[in-house]
Every structure is written in C-alpha cells, then in structure tokens.
Predict the structure.
Amino acid sequence: MGKYRIPTDLPKEDYLTAVHYALRYPLWKAEIETSADTARAIRYDTDKVQTSNDFDPVQSTAIRREEIGRKIKLVDDVIAQTASGLDAFLRFGVCYGLTFWQLQGKGIPCSKNTYYTIRKRFYYELSQRI
C-alpha cells in the first residue's frame, strides 16, 4: 500500500474504492472498443445446435455497453469538474497510474502540490458519486 497516501478527510475504504474504480477506466475503454460484434452465427460443425429463447446476446451486450458507458462518463465528468485545464494530465495520473514525475516529463503546467491537491479532490468527488 506504499504507493497511495490516504487523505485524512476520506475514509480509507472509500479512497481505495475510488482509486481502483478510476484504474478500471482503460479496461472499460478497451471493452467498449472491442465489443462491437454482438451477433454470433450458429455453428453447424458441432454435434448439437442449442437454441434458447431466454438469452439474447445482443440485448446483454447492449446493457453491458450502457453500464460501461455510464462509468466512463462518470469518471470523465469528475475529471472535468475537478481539473481546471489539467484534464488530460489528471486522466493520465488517476486512470493510467502515472506519477507526477512522469507527468512532468509530459509537460504538466503546475507544481507537485497543486497536482496532488487536485488529485485528492478528484478522489473525494468520485467516492461521493460512486
């Protein structure tokens, strides 16, 4: 647990939930991009063709994509609300796990204390909305 410093104004469990929720962002983006094929053809090279009226793969994929879309939008909205002009840098930091020093190499236009204050506020706001 050495990588994350728990803020004093946020319970440890809420903070860790927000951290891990934000770290799922790249996985959700990848799933949205790769889950476009919703209809699968029947395979006739198997012994049995199983049909069922209960399961609809198109509907279940659409529901899953909607859930993921809401989660992505939530993270994007909280980033836009908390980061004033630092949206891309905050997204790299909280969603992709980059440290301040890695962001400084990418040209972040603020000090370390300012970035960590914004990041702390992001985790607080996200924990309140989850």
Helices lie at 12-23, 25-34, 57-82, 87-95, 100-105, 112-129. The two ends are 22 Å apart (CA to CA). Residues 83 and 118 are 6 Å apart (CA to CA). The chain has six helices and no strands.
